[in-house]
Each structure stands twice: as C-alpha cells, then as structure tokens.
C-alpha cells in the first residue's frame, strides 16, 4: 500500500505539529469534508501498520497526533516523489512531455513518447496538439518529419527561456511536487558531474552576491545553479545562444555582466568550456532577474536602470497615496524597498524570465483593496516598459505596499520577539511579518532572514516562524505558509499559546496578580488559580485582532452630507466640508489645519479626478474616530490656477490608520468612476439623491 499526495500531506502536517490537530482545522486547510478526513486517517493508519509503526492517536476535544516513536521514524518512511505513488494528471504529463521534447537530442518518434509516458497514441496526440500551441506562444515551432521525427524549430534563447520557465514553475509551485524529481532527472540527467558541480556553483554564487552587494533568496541560488548546469549541458551539444548586438551591449554595461564573466572564468578554471559573450549575457539576464532577500544600504551596485526606476517608483507612490488617502511617514524607506524589488521585476519582464508567484491568487482574493490600488498605480511602470504588467508581478508589488501599510500602524507594546525565516524573498517576508504582527498583540518581529542568514545570525528571539521546515533547537519553531488563511491563524495562535505560556515575563506578571488576589481574598487552590491565570494571559496576549472595515454607507450618512451653492476659497471648502466630523468629535481643529497645510506644501494632490477632491492628513494630526463627509458645491472650487484642479465634490476622509478605511474608499472610487454616477451626484439636490447611490455601492 502507498499513500497518495493528499494523505501524505495530512501525515506531514501531523509530523510538523507539536500539538494535536483538530478535524476542523484539517477541513479548513484542505477544503474537504470531515468524512474525508476520517477516511484519510484510517488509510494512513493502515499504511503505518504496514510500516510497523504506531497509528495516529486522537485526544478527545483536541485532535489527532503522532506518537513519539512514530514521529522519529516517519522521515525515513515517506517517499513523496515516487512515480508509482499516484497516477499522473494530464497537466503533469504535458509538463514532462515538454521537457522531453526540449531536452532530447536524438530522434523522437511517437513510439518513444508512448514508451516514455505509458499512455495511448490517442492521448499523446491530444497532448501534442496543446503542446504545439504552447510552444508557439513561446516563439517555438514543434514539427514532425519522417527522417527527424518530432523536433523544435526556433532560437536557442527562446528554448533556454522556456526551460527556465518550466524549471522555476516545477521548483516553486506545489502542484508539481509529484513530478519534481522526474522533471529534475530529465533536466539534469545529461550532466554526470552535477553532484560535484552544484556545491561548486553555489559557492561561486555566494561570492557573486558579495560582488553585486545583494543577497539572493536560497531558492534562487538553487535555481541559478540548475540554470547554469542546463546551459553547460546544452553547450556540449552545440546549442549556443545568440543575442541581438544592441541587447548584448546594453547588458555589458551592467554589473551583473561583469559578475557573470567571473563565473565563466571560474567554470573554465574547473575544466568547463569558457562561455561566449552571448552566453555571459544570458547568465547576466538571469542574475538581474533573480529575486533577492535583501540588499544592504551601502550596496556598490548602481544599476543603469535605477534612475529611471526611481522616477517610476516616486510616481507610483504618489498615486498610491492619492488613491488610498494615505501619507507614508517613512516614504524614503518605502521607495528604497520598492526599488530593490522592482529591479528584478523590470529585468524579468524585459528578458521574458519566468516568475512563478504561487501567492498571486491569494493576494488578489484576500487583499483586494491593496491589489486594486497597486494596479491603478502600476501605470507608470507600464509606460516606462511600454508593456502591460502581469497580475502575478502586480501582486508581488502589492505585497510591498500592504506590508508597509501595516508596518506604519504598529503602536502596541510588544512582549515577545520573533524571527521570520522565509525563502520567498523580501516582499513575501514583509507581508508575512505584517500579517503576524497585525493579527497578534505582543509579537515583535525583529528580523526576516533567509535560511542561510538564520544559520549565521546571533539574534535571539522567543519564537521563530519558518515557511520551510526548520529543525527546532533551543527556540520554539512554528511552521507557517507564506500567506496565512483563517485555519493557519488558528493554528499559529494555538501553537503560541502552547509554546510561550510559560515564558518568564508572563510568570512574573502572574505572580504579581497572585499577590494582589491573595491580599484581598482567600485562595483555596493556589496552583490551579495560577495555571488558569497563565492560560488566560496567554489567550489575551495571542488573540486574532480582526479590524472591522466599515462600508461606505456607514461613513457617508445624512448627517455627513452638505450642499452649498458656492464658497470663497478652497480653504473654506475644506473647513466647511469638515464641519460634520468636527461637530461629532471625530476630528479636532488640528486635523483641518493639517489638511490645509498639506495642500499648501504638496500642491493640489487631493484633486484625484476632475471635479473630485478628497482632503486628508495623517491620523495623528487629530483623528479621534474614522469618518467621512461630503460637501457638494454648485460652483467649482479652484485648488490651483489650472482647470483640472477645480472640484465640485469635496469629500473629507479622516482615517484612524492606513487600512481600516480602504473598503469604504474602494467603494467610493468605484462609484465615482462611472460617468452617470458623477452626473447624478453633481445634479443632486438633497441627501437622498446621494445616499441612493452610496447604498448601491456599499456591499462586500
């Protein structure tokens, strides 16, 4: 008997957890019924029995767990990647066929494909029709002749780019876990000395990091090593890249080209063929496009594209602030952070280097407002590159903005220090940090590290959050996905309450409480009371902070909507529009002054579209409670001498932080984007005319 992927996954979750896992948690995590979970547990127990291991145990009211004896032997028993563990899906089969056709140097006939996949001629023919179309999308042509069999026509550059695309996808996307080992075997089987070459290349790439003044993600180091091995193998068969002369000259001006040249020299010193300038150019493309974990502020690497990208980022942040009605306090740090991420994005898009963002759909679904705001701001990068930016890259940039929004809202005193060990790059690390700090009081993430950085760090923490398996030593380790869903949050909280409830700081505080209680009451069971207080404090320290985000019609009401025929100045317009919020105590006079000062200092940035102005300032300027008010003025109010800066709708936003207002703001901007809605608002004579529209857009 063998385990399929789903049951192996269940067993892995039990193996990695230090506490029992409930049926409910597994249901949420996997999207299956309780009946399916119980059936899977039964099947896993049958498999464990075949392996002479103790079965999964269940503790009433808590969940399933493995015995210590079983836990120690599981790593030697599980074989996730065995081909015969499960039947290949059609998509998995197509990926392997793609690799087979891309890498095989001998004649390939239908019989070879049938033997390779163990599928029928009809199934293979259907697969080949789709594969031919896929090759065409990547500027390659799959052909057939009686003498050559199946073969590919096209530039070696495009073949190499497609190989890299498949490699990155198979390496990073969990849906290809079942064929990962076989895909690697096809990609690297022609390199007999890869066992020796891989550690050598990693050492060379670590030196390259120092030369470039940056740190690649650990995953990227592995991918770059494999890309170089694939390139070396193809060169032995005369499959050499030819670059456009202008492109090669542009690449030669980058620091990455010099670094790639030194990699070539070290390979040549080890007995491998010296790379041509075009091959060095291709390697520099991959270096430029690689995800980085961090780049020191003193980096000697000034990219030729950096000045242009800095201008793009300034415009993007300008727009994001306008669209989100947020003023970033540490804007210079945000822009530096975005530049670090945007450089590889730029080169990935320029050179068609793959980026598999398995988190893209999750970000678009669970962080809709931030994704939409980022997508509106990305137009400056699209103009700079003269091409559309795909959603998966926008999602990564949205992670940076989202992480920064949460970062600036952290004001709660922290009790415990945490370290995040994440292999997914700076954007994912920052987003995970923001999620953890936002959902829990008392946790201060002091560092986000790659696995290599963690091994060398001298930092100390009370808990470590790791996105990949990390062996626990002295400090508790909690394994988490890169983006947390509700079931993951419950699991993290449960682990924290279990692992940190006996922390020294909490013990001291509990002793103080015990002393106060004993002073005013008789304690019959001191030990039981102390344990209950510890449990209560742990629960209070680690509890999910769900911030309610109100709808638009909860902020714009009949009490906050006003009408005027005209006002004398734009200052008067802001003051008049703010009155409902001032009178209700939601803002102080200082907030009105700050909004006016911002326009004087920054210009009419609050006029976000013709006839619409949204004055706002930072929360600390005098916001007591989230609020929004609207003033409709018949005669346009000029915020500058230009016609485009005249507004009839003055909508004051008083935000308490960087995020709570985003749902209502998203609904407002959606409403204002429709021309017929604008016409109705400009012609409105009373609050009912406005509220009928507002209510139509106030829904999830």
UniProtKB/TrEMBL annotation:
Alphabetical UniProt keywords: Activator, Repeat, Transcription, Transcription regulation, Transferase
Ranges for domain PTS EIIB type-2: 416-504
Record GO terms (molecular function): protein-N(PI)-phosphohistidine-sugar phosphotransferase activity
The PTS EIIA type-2 domain, residue ranges: 554-697
Residue span, PRD domain: 192-297, 304-411
Keyword Amino-acid biosynthesis part of the UniProt annotation: no
GO biological process, one term: regulation of DNA-templated transcription
PANTHER family: CRYPTIC BETA-GLUCOSIDE BGL OPERON ANTITERMINATOR, MANNITOL-SPECIFIC PHOSPHOTRANSFERASE ENZYME IIA COMPONENT
Designated name of the protein: PTS lichenan transporter subunit IIC
